[in-house]
Design goal:
With 198 residues, this protein is α/β, with parallel strands linked by helices. Helix content is 58%, strand content 12%. Catalyzes the phosphorylation of the 3'-hydroxyl group of dephosphocoenzyme A to form coenzyme A.
C-alpha cells in the first residue's frame, strides 16, 4: 500500500484537502484526530499531561482545555518540547498501527509536523498543501478565533514554507477557489491510484 504523507503549515488547508480525499473513498489517517483520541477524558496520556502541566487544564467534564494548553506551550519552547515528548511517540505508534490495517491501494496520512519531526521515512510520498504565509496568518486568526500574536507564535514554531517545499514530492497550491482545490485533489487521486497499481 502506498502511504502519502499530507502536510502543510497551519491555515494552509490540510483538513479540507484530507476531506476531499476521504470523499473520494481514500482512507485518511489524521494525527490530529489521533492526538485528540489519545487524550480523551480518563485516558492514561491525559493523566500524564495534567500531571506535567497542571489540573487547571481540565474542563469541569474532565476534558482537556486545548486553548489553555496551547497558550502555555506556544509561550514556552521548553513546555512545547515536554508536551511533544509525551504525545508524539504514542501518536506515531497509533498512526503506524492504523496504516498497517488499511486494505486499499493507498492512504493519506495527515501529519502537520511531518517535517519538524523528520517523519518522511514513514511515508512513500510527501504531499504539501501550500499557500503564502500572509494567507496562513489571516486564515488562522479567523478560523481559530485567536489573536495575531498567538497565530504568529504558532507559525514561527513550525517548519518554514521553504523547508516543507524542499521535501515535497507533490504540492497543492491553495490560494484559489474550492473548486480549483477539488480539481487538484482529484488529479492527484488518479495519479496515486496509478502509482499504487504499479
Amino acid at each position: 500500500m502506498l502511504r502519502v504523507g499530507l502536510t502543510g503549515g497551519i491555515g494552509c488547508g490540510k483538513s479540507t484537502v484530507a476531506r476531499i480525499f476521504a470523499d473520494a473513498g481514500v482512507p485518511v489517517i489524521d494525527t490530529d484526530i489521533i492526538a485528540h483520541e489519545l487524550v480523551a477524558p480518563g485516558s492514561p496520556l491525559l493523566t500524564k499531561v495534567v500531571r506535567t502541566f497542571g489540573k487547571d487544564l481540565l474542563h469541569c467534564d474532565g476534558s482537556l482545555d486545548r486553548s489553555r494548553l496551547r497558550e502555555q506551550v506556544f509561550a514556552d519552547p521548553d513546555k512545547r518540547g515536554q508536551l511533544e515528548s509525551l504525545l508524539h511517540p504514542a501518536i506515531r505508534d497509533e498512526m503506524i498501527r492504523r496504516a498497517e490495517s488499511v486494505q486499499k491501494s493507498y492512504a493519506i496520512l495527515v501529519i502537520p509536523l511531518l517535517v519538524e519531526k523528520g517523519w518522511q521515512g514513514l511515508v512513500d510520498r510527501v504531499l504539501v498543501v501550500d499557500c503564502p504565509p500572509s494567507l496562513q496568518l489571516q486564515r488562522t486568526i479567523s478560523r481559530d478565533d485567536t489573536d495575531e500574536r498567538q497565530a504568529r507564535a504558532i507559525l514561527a514554531s513550525q517548519a518554514s514554507r521553504e523547508e516543507r517545499l524542499a521535501v515535497a514530492d507533490d504540492v497543492i497550491p491553495n490560494s484559489g477557489t474550492l473548486d480549483k482545490l477539488r480539481q487538484q485533489v482529484h488529479d492527484l487521486h488518479r495519479f496515486y491510484l496509478r502509482l499504487a497499481g504499479n
